[in-house]
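Now produce a polypeptide, keeping tokens residue-aligned:
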Amino acid sequence: MAKVFKKTSGNGTIALYLGKRDFVDCVDSVEVVDGVVKVDPAGLNGKKVFVYLACAFRYGSDDLDVIGLSFRRDIWIKRVQVYPVPAAKAPSTPLQESLLKKVGDQGCPFTFQMPLNLPCSVSLQPGTGDSGKACGVDFEVKAYIADEADNPDEVIEKKNTCRLIIRKIQFAPANNKAGPKAEISKQFMMTDKPVNVEISLEKEIYYHGDPISVNVKINNETTKTVKKIKVSVEQLTSVVLYSSDTYSKEVCAQEFGETVGANSTFEKSFQVVPLLADNKDKRGLAVDGRLKDEDTNLASTTLGQGERELQGILVSYKVKVTVTVSGGGMLGGLTGSDVVVEVPVTLMSPKPAEVTDVNMEPAEG
């Protein structure tokens, strides 16, 4: 247990304790969310204490909520009663045992198991004039005092609640496979031979901030000249709620002035580095979910797409190589064109080393 995160309600009656705020999705399983609520029964006035874990899609700022519309849609929510303690109480986890030693007899443990089809924590980068919380997918653990777990007619005052935002994250798998390969042949007007382009990546997974090596092979069987090569990386963001919409944004692009003459071959490896720092002005770009105002990076590739029916925001990337072939003869530019080849690439963060120091940290939001 590296840290203990604590949030106390405004009236001081309940306090929420978590051992961590990042929970790892391993595709075929997700870490259990377990914690403890400290309850002072003297301040309950006969009410009960509940905890919920919610995964929600936020598609508007809270300060826009002026006509009773909700700009937040719950993708999944689970509620449990922690006080009075239910008769069928589950056994405590090792983390809860440690927390209960700190909290004492007033500690009430809770446990949530997230389903496999929930998305990871992702935010959509706001524009320069936007204010308030960013759109995206977030996870919230909230303890509250109420008569019932979920009564829409019951008004729960803010002073009777305490909440912590957590993150559901994925790390790059330990085994990195050989990268993908793709090739295409294209013929042009007024020619009977093609330009053949093949691209390949050195490996399947790249860490955020690392250069991506793209090997390009060109066999130019025409009488035309290849005058430049562009290597770019695109982020594909699929928003899967009522329907599925996919948006594409270029996050990295570089042109190389390499030429390939008529009836000749060419092979070279190019490197590009997609960075969030170079895309700060792109509204709607997907970035990894953050806690408070800490630094983040481009959103990691969502693992498990195609293997399970996921909801929320799903992210993938592709490397695109555009080879520009010049026109020639009397028709000039009319006979020139581009040859485009694409391969998928996975961008992720490596799994960090385990941290062993222990301390108590009050948490914001």
